[in-house]
Amino acid sequence: MLFIYIFLFIVIFSYILKRLAPYILTYIIKKQFEKFQKKQPQKKDDFKMKSNKKVGEYIDYEEID
Questions:
Q1: How far from 23 is each of 19, 30, 37, 51, CA to CA, in Å?
Q2: How far is it, in rounded angstroms, from Cα 60 to Cα 5?
Q3: For the chain, which terminus, N or C, has the lower number of CB atoms within 10 Å?
Q4: How far from 21 is each of 7, 27, 35, 53, 65, CA to CA, in Å?
């Protein structure tokens, strides 16, 4: 009789867990994303392209036969 109760508990628990797994994973991913957003600085100046620096002179080499 105890075996039947244990078996039913495992079956019912696994069914409930299968139904709740997408919601639990969504919650965990959302919390991890919020934690990641807090760690990252909110500076947008780092991503601007600075093209006013002179790199050098362009030299076009010709192929010699």
A1: 8, 11, 21, 47
A2: 83
A3: C
A4: 21, 10, 21, 53, 69
Q: Which amino acid is at 52?
A: N
How far apart are the C-alpha atoms of 16 and 24, rounded to whole Å? Answer: 12
**What is the model's pTM?**
0.49
Q: How far apart are CA 44 and CA 65, in angstroms?
A: 51
| Helix, coil or strand: residue 5 | helix
- Encode pLDDT of 27-48 as tens digits: 999 999 999 988 876 655 555 5
